[in-house]
Structures are given as structure tokens and as C-alpha cells.
Amino acid sequence: MEGIAVSTAMFLLKGIPEGFLVAWGMHILTNTPVRRKPYLMLSLLYIVITYLIRFLPITLGINTVLSLFVMIFSYQIVYHANLSKMIRAMIAAIIILVMTAASEILNVLLLTLVYGSEQANQLVTSSNQFSQAIYTMPSTVFLGLITLAGYFIMKAINKGKQANGKNSETTGE
């Protein structure tokens, strides 16, 4: 069994940006402030290890599960999180996995709507790696938009919690 090949174009155009988005999503969903050095360390650990996983002799899907564990363990290594933060990190990693799957599905739906199902299938499985990377890039854009929406949702939730907390302090309830 061979590894799951990743072209240089796919790694540069899709893998790296997606890795940074996944790390940003972890920060958002765990309410961890983004600081440059830990964010870069988390992102780069995830990007490099996920890339290396693709060379293992495993089937498609197993690499996704392994990448999920990589994100959780990378988060623990970078942030030395306590148990409650680690549980949040596990939940966040699963949510990000679902968000990534949703963005891939949206990409396929978009390509199918624009080109038809047969042509869309040919585009995402093209032997031209650069072309394949270009046509699968919308999934990264969709992931970015979903992550951005998550940022604003979490910001509103946290703002609501702070407002409720301040009200409780002033009223004593």
C-alpha cells in the first residue's frame, strides 16, 4: 500500500493555508488568545506532521483521523493545557474536522453546479497537480469563511457571557 501522495502545488496552495486556518479555528473554539509565536508553532507542527502523515502506507480517511490527533497533541505541546482546556481542544478539533469536511463538500457542489458532475470529478482528480490544487482551493476559502463566521459567533457568545457576568456582579444575582 502506498502513501497518499501530495504534490508540491497542493501543499503550497492548499495545505499551508488550511493548516493556518485549522490552527486559528483551534484558538477560536478554545478561547485561546492568538499570540504570534505559539500560533506559528501550532500551525507549523500541524502542517508538517499532517504532510508527513500523507506518506504513510494508509488509506484515505485514516490520515484525517491521525491529523485530528496531531492537532490535539500539538495544541497540548504548545499550550501545556489543563484538563478542561484539553477537553475543549478535543471538541474543537472534531468541530474543525466537520468544518473541513463541509468545506470540501461545498467545493464539490460548487464545481458540480458550474461544470457538471462528470467534469467536476475530473477536475478534482486531475493528473495535473497544479490544476487539481487550483480547483480544490475554494474549499480552503469556504473553510476560511466558516472559521471567520465561527470567530464572530464565539465573539458574540463571549460578549454575552461578559455582559451577563457584569450584570450579575452589579445586581448581586
Question: What attributes characterize this protein structure?
Answer:
6 helices; globular; mainly alpha; about 80% helix; about 170 residues
Report on the structure:
The chain is mainly α. Helix content is 82%, strand content 0%. The protein is built from six helices and no strands. It has helices spanning 8-29, 36-53, 62-79, 83-115, 117-124, 129-171. Helix 4 (83-115) crosses helix 6. It is globular and about 55 Å long. The relative contact order is 0.13.
Helix content: over 70%
What are the low-pLDDT stretches, counting only 5+ consecutive residues below 50? 167-173
| Alpha-carbon Rg, integer | 19 Å
Overall 3D shape: globular
Structural class: mainly alpha
Summed up, the helix count is 6
Note the main sheet: none
Oligomer: single chain
Compute the average pLDDT: 88
- Run of helices and strands: HHHHHH
Terminal Cα separation, in Å? 63 Å
Residue fraction in strands: under 5%
> Quick one: how many beta strands?
0
Reconstruct the topology from this structure.
Layout lengths: L7 H22 L6 H18 L8 H18 L3 H33 L1 H8 L4 H43 L2
Helix pairs in contact: 1-2, 1-4, 1-6, 2-3, 3-4, 4-5, 4-6
Quick take:
The chain has six helices and no strands.
